[in-house]
């Protein structure tokens, strides 16, 4: 704006500048007379004694020329300002050869309302601005770069997926209440006729989808466990002795548990009442009250003497300002000493990188060992019965025969155990049912 004003003033100062107002001549300046001499080094005299009348008239004339002719007259070419009058009227043919009627002429009211200024309207900067223009430009550049690499943005992928889903329109099942539907014979052997899926599920023609969780077995144990070779009717000597040893260890374990329970429930002879304890219980409460009062008085006197001795030494003197400052300085020194020690330790750790690395490797090794042990423990627990109820599962007794009870043939073999109890215990061991007791 300042450059435009400077250009206008320079143009007006040229000898070819044509003012439109007659006031901008030397006669107006001569009427002002001699100027008053004032000091211009004071700010209060700048506006009071400054005459800017001639500058304002000049600027008004420049604005008038811009409104009337669209610019300064001095800048206009001669062809736009003058013409040669030869006396001949030339008929200027317009490109539109169609004659306009009176109705096509604008009304006088519209002519009055039309702007008469040749100055173009100021450019509306807000009309060219866009919110988040910089961000949108960056996103567009990034999308172009990804498109050149063959990578589609997320919006395009979702749009294509939506289009493919819309293309794959699934056929709706027929309405069971529609009278024009096809009939389905329930008792026919051929089930090729379409029917309602819900109807098929209810009539057991179509199986319900089984959850995957129900396909997992609660235990890895087999349904029927094979007994050890020592339990055969004609076993090997070593295998039979191994089975006997196992049964012996189970019985010893039961005996130890019973003995432990007996020891816990046994009567302590030290807690049995004696004649002396019985006499003390009977005599209790028969001591005279005078003796009790004397004992109480002596006890109170001893307590008061102790309290007075302790109270005299427990009082602390008030610290002086010098002592407080000294303690504060000691605390600051201690904090600085601790910070310096910590910094020194962090520096010393640079020389211990090798040992730190070895310690980390050892820790990782220990962690892996613990993980392997934990996994092995978890695998072992899969074969153990869980706690499904308030009772704990108890292993059944081993079905074993002694050496003199062995039979040489199946005819003379004595039956051991019960098949029903064995199946019942197997269900409990495989976590299919909870351990139970016979109702009494």
From TrEMBL:
<comment type="similarity">
    <text>Belongs to the NOP53 family.</text>
</comment>
<dbReference type="InterPro" id="IPR011687">
    <property type="entry name" value="Nop53/GLTSCR2"/>
</dbReference>
<comment type="function">
    <text>May play a role in ribosome biogenesis.</text>
</comment>
<feature type="compositionally biased region" description="Basic and acidic residues">
    <location>
        <begin position="168"/>
        <end position="180"/>
    </location>
</feature>
<dbReference type="GO" id="GO:0008097">
    <property type="term" value="F:5S rRNA binding"/>
</dbReference>
<dbReference type="GO" id="GO:0005654">
    <property type="term" value="C:nucleoplasm"/>
</dbReference>
<protein>
    <recommendedName>
        <fullName>Ribosome biogenesis protein NOP53</fullName>
    </recommendedName>
</protein>
<keyword id="KW-0175">Coiled coil</keyword>
<keyword id="KW-0539">Nucleus</keyword>
<dbReference type="GO" id="GO:0005730">
    <property type="term" value="C:nucleolus"/>
</dbReference>
<keyword id="KW-0690">Ribosome biogenesis</keyword>
<feature type="compositionally biased region" description="Basic and acidic residues">
    <location>
        <begin position="293"/>
        <end position="306"/>
    </location>
</feature>
<feature type="coiled-coil region">
    <location>
        <begin position="238"/>
        <end position="265"/>
    </location>
</feature>
<feature type="region of interest" description="Disordered">
    <location>
        <begin position="165"/>
        <end position="187"/>
    </location>
</feature>
<dbReference type="Pfam" id="PF07767">
    <property type="entry name" value="Nop53"/>
</dbReference>
<feature type="region of interest" description="Disordered">
    <location>
        <begin position="281"/>
        <end position="328"/>
    </location>
</feature>
<feature type="region of interest" description="Disordered">
    <location>
        <begin position="367"/>
        <end position="390"/>
    </location>
</feature>
<dbReference type="GO" id="GO:0000027">
    <property type="term" value="P:ribosomal large subunit assembly"/>
</dbReference>
<dbReference type="GO" id="GO:0006364">
    <property type="term" value="P:rRNA processing"/>
</dbReference>
């Amino acid at each position: 704006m300042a450059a435009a004003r400077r250009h206008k003033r320079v143009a007006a100062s040229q000898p070819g500048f044509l003012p439109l107002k007659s006031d901008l001549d030397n006669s107006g300046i001569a009427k002002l007379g001699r100027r008053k001499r004032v000091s211009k080094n004071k700010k209060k005299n700048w506006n009071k004694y400054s005459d800017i009348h001639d500058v304002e008239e000049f600027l008004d004339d420049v604005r008038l020329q811009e409104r009337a002719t669209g610019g300064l007259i001095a800048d206009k070419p001669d062809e736009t300002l003058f013409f040669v009058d030869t006396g001949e009227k030339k008929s200027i043919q317009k490109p539109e050869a169609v004659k306009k009627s009176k109705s096509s002429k604008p009304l006088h009211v519209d002519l009055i309302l039309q702007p008469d200024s040749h100055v173009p309207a100021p450019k509306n900067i807000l009309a060219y601005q866009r919110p988040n223009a910089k961000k949108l430009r960056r996103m567009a550049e990034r999308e172009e770069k990804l498109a050149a690499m063959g990578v589609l943005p997320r919006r395009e992928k979702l749009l294509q997926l939506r289009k493919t889903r819309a293309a794959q329109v699934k056929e709706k099942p027929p309405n069971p209440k529609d009278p024009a539907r096809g009939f389905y014979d329930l008792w026919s052997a051929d089930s090729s006729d379409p029917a309602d899926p819900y109807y098929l599920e209810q009539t057991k023609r179509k199986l319900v989808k089984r959850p995957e969780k129900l396909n997992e077995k609660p235990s890895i144990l087999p349904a029927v466990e094979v007994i050890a070779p020592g339990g055969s009717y004609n076993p090997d000597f070593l295998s039979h002795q191994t089975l006997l040893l196992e049964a012996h260890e189970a019985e010893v374990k039961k005996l130890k548990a019973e003995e432990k329970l007996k020891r816990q429930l046994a009567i302590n002879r030290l807690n049995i009442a004696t004649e002396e304890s019985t006499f003390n219980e009977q005599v209790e409460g028969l001591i005279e009250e005078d003796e009790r009062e004397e004992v109480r008085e002596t006890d109170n006197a001893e307590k008061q003497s102790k309290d007075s001795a302790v109270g005299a030494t427990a009082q602390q003197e008030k610290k002086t300002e010098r002592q407080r400052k000294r303690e504060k300085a000691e605390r600051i020194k201690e904090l600085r000493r601790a910070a310096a020690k910590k910094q020194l330790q962090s520096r010393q750790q640079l020389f211990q990188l090798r040992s730190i690395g070895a310690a980390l490797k050892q820790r990782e090794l220990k962690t892996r060992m613990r993980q392997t042990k934990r996994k092995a423990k978890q695998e072992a627990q899969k074969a153990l019965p869980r706690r499904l109820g308030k009772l704990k599962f108890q292993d059944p007794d081993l079905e074993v025969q002694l050496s003199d009870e062995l039979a040489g043939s199946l005819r003379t073999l004595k039956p051991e155990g019960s098949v029903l109890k064995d199946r019942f215990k197997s269900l409990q061991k495989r976590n299919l049912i909870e351990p139970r007791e016979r109702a009494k």
